[in-house]
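Reopening this one. Same input as before:
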Amino acid sequence: MAESQEQSQERWLQAGRIGRPHGLDGSFYVTRPRSVLLEVGAAMRVEQQDLIIERRAGTDVKPIIRFASVSTPEAVEAIRGQALFCELAQAPSLGDDEWWSEELEGCSVVDGDTAIGAVSRLLVLPSCEVLEVTRSDGSELLIPMVRDAIRSVDVGDRKIDVNLAFVGAS
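Same output, byte for byte:
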C-alpha cells in the first residue's frame, strides 16, 4: 500500500523529446531540451521504461545523447517522438524563488483567504514568466511571476498566494 502511494506521488520533469538518430551507435538528437537534466548517468523514463544516459555530446541547444540500452538507429526510430522524463527528486536543485513549471502546475491560487483557481501552466513571455490560472468560473487569468504579484509560493502545500489588486483583477 505504501509503495503505491509513493509511486502515485512521484513527480516528473520533461527533459525533452527523442529526435532523429545521429550516427550508427544509437545516439539521437533531443528536441525541446532542458539541457540541465540531460547529464551522463542521469536516469530517464521513456514510455514506462527506465534508461540511463551513457553519452552526451552536441550543445545545450541541440544535445545529442545515447542510452546504454539503445544501440542502433532503428531502436531510436522505434521511440522517436517520445518524451524524456526525469524524476523531480533527481533534478538539480534550483535557487531561492525558483521552481520547475511542473511544480507550479495544479497549485491552488488564492488572494489571502479568497480562492481564485488553479495554475494550468507556466508561460514564458518576452518580458517575464506568467502563471496561467483557470478561475473557479472557468475564465483564464494571467499572473506575472514578479514579487509585487506573487506574495508566496508553497509547492509542498500546493498553494500560491497572489495580490489580485496588483494584477488589476480583484
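So the earlier flakiness isn't reproducible anymore. For the record, The chain has two domains: 11-90, 101-167.
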